[in-house]
Amino acid sequence: MVKYGLDYTRCRWILPLLLGIGVIFGIIALAGRGWLESQTLPYVQQASLWESCSRPFQGGEWTCESLMDYAWGRAAAATYLVGFILLVICFALAIIAFAIDTLRFNFIRGIGGLLFVAAVFSIMGLVIYPVKFSTEIEMTGINMFSWAYGFGWTTAIMEICLGFFFCCLPNYEDQILGNVKPTYFYSSP
């Protein structure tokens, strides 16, 4: 973005766009029912961040139990939700920061720090969930942590990577704003 001719005015919305994609992935993880699923037939287990559902056999009726009845379920949901809310706040702050003509680079570094805090909360929720789920809830058959859980991890990884970008961007303030004179390596004899 800095060195090879990508103009700041053309590329200024890449980081907020990536944050927006992270928000969408977080919504999918929060709403998805695929945190844990049966891997093979008969499909008798399915769980989300909020509830665990099972059925006795393939054509049977699903019976669901709320994970909010468990302290670890509330802790996993709360920490992941706090991380998601911080991500949404960072997205709003990034829109504001990049919409202003004179970019405040210290403000951008603060967004990066807040993204690291969001990643810590998200990872806490993503670690609490499988550890306690597999020890507290009786599972039948072969189960796997599935697509919605993967979207949760993708969101956490995006928070970490974007945190680095937002923290390192102020180091290239002069190059981004075009305040550096070009260096020519050719000298006339």
TrEMBL record:
Q: Where in the cell is it found?
A: Cell junction, Desmosome; Cell membrane; Cytoplasm
Under the cellular component aspect of Gene Ontology, which terms does the record hold?
A: cytoplasm; desmosome; plasma membrane
UniProt xrefs under InterPro entries: P53_induced (IPR015664), PMP22/EMP/MP20/Claudin (IPR004031)
This protein's source sits in the domain of life called Eukaryota
Where do transmembrane segments lie in this chain? Answer: 12-32, 77-100, 107-131, 151-172
Listed Pfam families = PMP22_Claudin
Q: Name one GO biological process term.
A: cell-cell adhesion
The reply to whether Transmembrane figures as a keyword in the UniProt entry is yes
Its protein name is p53 apoptosis effector related to PMP-22
| Provenance organism | Penelope pileata
The uppermost taxa in this organism's lineage are: Eukaryota, Metazoa, Chordata, Craniata, Vertebrata
